Amino acid sequence: MILRTRGTLAATGLLVATGMLLAGCGSGAASDGSDGYTVYALLPQGNDQPYGTTYLPPMQEAAAKAGIKLTITNSQYDADKQASECEVAVAARPDLIILWPAVADTVRPCLEAAKAADIPVTVTNSDVIPADKSLIKAYSGPDTYGQGAASAEIMCELADGKPTGILMVNGLTGNTTAINRRQGFLDTIQKNCPNVTVLAEQPGNWNKDTSQTVTSEMLTSVGAAKVQGIYAADDTMVAGAIDALKAQGIDPKPLLITSIGNTKLGNPLIKSGELDGTIFQSSSWDGQNAVVVAEKVLKGESVDENLFMPSVKVTAANADSPEVAPEW
Amino acid sequence: MNSTPTLSLGPATTDRSARLRAALARRTEWRGLALLAVVVVATLSFEPLVFTAYPVTLGRVALIGLVALGLTAVILMGELDLSVASTLAVAGVVMASIPNVALGIVVALCAGLLIGLVNAFFVVKVGINSFIATLGMLFVLRGLAFVLSGEKPVRMADIEAGIAFGAPIIGPITPRVLIFVLVFIGLQIFVTKVRAGREFYAVGGNRQAARDAGIPVSRRLVTGFMLSGFVAALAGVINTMERTAADPTAGSTVLLASIAAAIIGGVALTGGRGSIVGTLVGALSLGIIEVGLTLSGVQVDVQQIFIGGVLLLAVITDPASFRAVVGNARSFLSGRRGETPA
Amino acid sequence: MKRGTRPSGAQTLQWVSERGIFFFTAALVAFAALFIDNFVSIVNITDVFHRAAPIGIVAVGMTFVVISGNYLDLSVVAQVATAAVVLIAVSNSAGLGLAVLAALAIALLYGVVNGVAVGYLRANAVIVTLSTTFVGLGILRWLSGGSIFFGPPDGPIRALGQVKVVGLPLSALVLVVMTAALAFLLGRTNFGFLIRSFGSNRTATRLAGVDTSRVVVGAFLITSLSAMVAGFVLAAFSNTAVSTMAQGFDFGALAAIIIGGTSVFGGKGSVLRTLLGVIFVSVLTNILVLSKIGFGWQQMAIGALIVLAVSVDTLARKAARR
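^ Those are the sequences you sent over. The predicted structure of the assembly is below.
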């Protein structure tokens, strides 16, 4: 029994050791010196999410144009998996790493490892925390906190100083974007319009069906008559919330409703007057500028610390403007 | 779809298939070793960087494998611990919430032991099937991780300690890999050399017989669940140290990856069969595949299709599957069943 | 299941414990009706059914896999999402009829692959369905590109989602009809008898000359068809479909089955119990949301209930045996 176990162990060891040896022999030319740059992009989503699906093509296009060989990973919002992918990326010695943190609080060691290996890092979509800013070259993307704040500004304007009770539908529990948007919204209404109060909040998990059910339940819970408005953290969920209102026989038009996204689902709701305001988030801008910023860093050009995606407020007034044409 | 190659082996001559079956059945790790060999050869030809950058690959293996090692102790006894991933998350949050790092580690590890004890209480004292008891704990502990953390990541007070922990200590080897190796050696010695550990096999093989032979079954079960809880908490502590923060959503892929590593390595979910070495082999195979696919820049959905296919192939090529196919084919040929299949 | 004569006190205890889920559900509904404002209103009952219907339809189907002694079908998450995406995406481009046919073909494929691997090849159900989840979700995301699909606002899928039957959504009726049909299948047919006896004693059933492998394929096929219907219900409810739908349906459905009192050892259980388990969890979650309780506490409550329900059941059974 024990002898056999040793045999198995030896076989395992032999297999792995052979791998290392053989690889060691042929590894002299592992990183070929061909022209162009190699870049690793560590993303937490890709073709598995609607946003990532429209984020990737412009990114790849921009990379092809700039002669960048892009290797993209997708950690599916698992911080441990992304950390491991970061180790892989650092070991591959690319010219640069583009990072979209899965969980912003956890990327410090990855940034330190890249710095130790002399690999510059640029950040896309979700920024690192202020304490880590010195470890990155630049950030491009939306300001997720700012989006929540901008949506709150629309809400404040609509409420016009009158006492307004609203319901809040958040993103997936524990998700960085969900946390930041919620905080941005809450901070802003507290500062700008304390007359707006959140009567109840629940996660809608970025889903239309979940959002519809929890909104309906919150309406029952606080009493539909007391609700004058709804904020949802994205357009998919706000569409569910509006359906919940209609299903209870409540006309959504008089209510103050805001969200974030201006997607193909949200834009028609703006035009029909059911959704009062949303914040345009361009996934293609995001993907493209991730590479544009990276290219500047690679070429040694100077870059701004932050390249924020313009948080364009979309209301009935500009819903048809080509500048805010919905992308997904 | 993957069943065709195996089916063709079915009606082979009894002589050869008997020898094949005997060879396969002698040890439980063959399947895992065969897979590992294929994986090593394939990654060597396509992505040799997996091996030149071996500290990274070992790190990934340790990430997948640590929880699986503890889980194997429970599976060997024919039980299951579905709460490992939630235990990992709770332990991380507990550790990060305590300002003093050393105290945090101790409390988090104790929490893991306590969770194991609670699981064992429901299984041993109350008499609930471990699959259900730990399913309940999966929900309870996940909820607890959210409640304790306020549904947000918790940053460690002493971030420098975390970063220092992530640095290599022996050559390019990080503490994570070292701890993984130590846990592996410890558990391997425990289940092969220590009497209490060897009795795990008896408990999983035939519980009544084990009882009749005077083995304290209940005490062994408690030991197993506490081991599993402790190792899961240890993984939570390591993750939190390395990331400098605890994420309450952590471990989303840990549970199923751990079970997969054990099964690929030949550990039988019915208990009594398998080994710690097998789980190591399973974790090595999965880790190398994942790092190889990541380095090659294969997009994640294709990676999933690939890993799923490998897993399906691994599980349907179990010796028991061969026997089942042979049995089915034989009874089919002898016309015991006349009707057309549904 | 017949049992020998027992002391009457213990007998009563066992009688109660065997019907635990009926009493638990009745008590919870009575509590909610008395103490939670607006719980008894057509709007709120509709919400409870919106929670219960999709996962409930999956759970009543998956009961067959659990009773056959094969733990669970993890791939239901992939199956529900695939059915929903196929229904909306294909009907947008090629019509509703073709969409339903395509979804049906995919459901049959899932059922056959899972069933053959578990039934004929005797592979472990957890790992088989885990691998089909990986492959299935991978293919879905590869082909759909992870996009959100939505049907036209005046399309037939949307219209189905809006249909009401005696004030309740059509999905509630689908849940009830599915439960009735599957309860009949499990309780009154030869196939149902085989599955129950197979789960309780595999070897004996096999020795009796029953093709146990084919019974397992049947159990997985029923689960797959139920998951397809659940996907349709979810798609019709929101008129949208995306590959990330139905997260948590795997262990969520299993939790409902177990709370209902079906044994994971196989053999014991019923479809009606599963329905009650689903209603119990849905009412509980509804009450917690109505009381503005956060997500973390909701999860803890569900977990604690699983352990509590099964503990009471087990302890009562032990007491009755003494």
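Chain B touches chain A through 59 residues (CB under 8 Å). The two ends of chain B are 17 Å apart (CA to CA).

Shout if you want it in another format.
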